[in-house]
């Protein structure tokens, strides 16, 4: 049986494992596609006002909602039906706001989804149909027109004394309910330079992105202009093919850097601690006074068939006081990691609410090497 020398076998094993070793750090990195946006590739918000008809008595109150009545009257007049001086009574019509998002480079004739939301006192849009509604952009121009059957996920059922509601029946969607009528002009292929915007601006991350792009193209074609922007000049071998350049670049992987930050939401008691948070040497103690009062009424009554005595209610009160005497002072050493810090606080039996106060106190003492952001 033929056997390779031990040194040669070790060398072959090393080369076999090399792809796995190289792939390890890359798996923890992020694609540029997931952390950046390219200039010009963006969505645009659209909004419109319209009427939903066909409701089963769950529409607006025509007498009390003036804009619904005026909109209905104006629509009927445009169709040759004059109702200006007539007493129109209808509960099958609702005034709504229609919103949509126009994707970048959407062409004429393509369809987009729209969201329909009641504007008046309508109870439900279930079963309604949105009439033709122009959708305008921030510049006041009409970019699409919406119409169609409203799909509502919730419902409302009510009687004289009770009602049952699920979800929000006054809001719904119309899949593919709007047709794009106007395009937003933008010649991506003619650009000689393009800006890459970071979703989380950071100087180190911007520098790493520029370095990765230059290493990929082999020339100095990219440089950071500020913490949130990286300028990219089209290399000669990509001239006239900006889409191919952007496709290749957005697949590059880098390790984003971030500030040491502690995010606190005092309303829900949520705490998010970043990986780079460090603590200087500090002693922490936490105690609170808790008083618990329990009322346990007891009934005292005479023996069965007794001719004397009455049934009485006797109050029994139990009071418990916890002054937090079992809580001890804990010392957190300098430069501890996030895991060590969390373990130390958990060892004190501290809940999220008290932990928020402790973090703010540690920051005030100058021992928390991180930024605290309160939502």
Automatic annotation (TrEMBL):
| Cell location | Bacterial flagellum basal body
The primary location reported for this protein is other
Keyword list (alphabetical) reads:
Bacterial flagellum, Cell projection, Cilium, Flagellum, Periplasm, Signal
| Any GO MF annotation of the entry | structural molecule activity
Keyword Metal-binding listed: no
Record-level GO BP terms = bacterial-type flagellum-dependent cell motility
Q: Give a Pfam family name.
A: FlgI
Endpoints of the signal sequence: 1-28
What is one cellular component GO term in this UniProt entry? outer membrane-bounded periplasmic space
Superkingdom of this protein's organism: Bacteria
Role this protein plays: Assembles around the rod to form the L-ring and probably protects the motor/basal body from shearing forces during rotation.
Stated family: Belongs to the FlgI family.
Question: What quaternary structure, including any partners, is listed in this protein's UniProt entry?
Answer: The basal body constitutes a major portion of the flagellar organelle and consists of four rings (L,P,S, and M) mounted on a central rod.
Q: What is this protein called?
A: Flagellar P-ring protein
